[in-house]
Amino acid sequence: MTYIIAREYDLLVRGTAPGAAGIHGLPPESFDALRAFLQTPVEGHKGQEEVIARPTLRGNQPALRLQQWVGVIRTPDGTTVELLPKTHERDGEADGETVARSRALLFRMLAAAGDNYRAALPADLDPAQMRLFEVVLRYALEVLRAAIRRGIPHAYREVQEERAGLRGRLDLSRQLRQPPHRVHLLHVTYDEFLPDRPETRLVRLAVERIARMTARSDSRRLARELLHALADVPASRDVRRDFTRWKLERGYTHFAPSLDICRLILNELNPLTAGTASRVTAVLFDMNRVYETYVAQLLRLQHPDWQVQTQVKGQHLGSFLPQPSGQARPVFALRPDLIVHPPGQPVIIADTKWKRLKADRAFPHGVGNADAYQMLAYSEIFQPEPGQRRLCLIYPYLPGLPNQLPDIQLPGGRTLRVVLVDLHQDTPTVNLELTFDNIRADSEVRAGVPDSAKS
Question: Which InterPro entries match (predicted)?
Answer without folding.
Answer: McrC
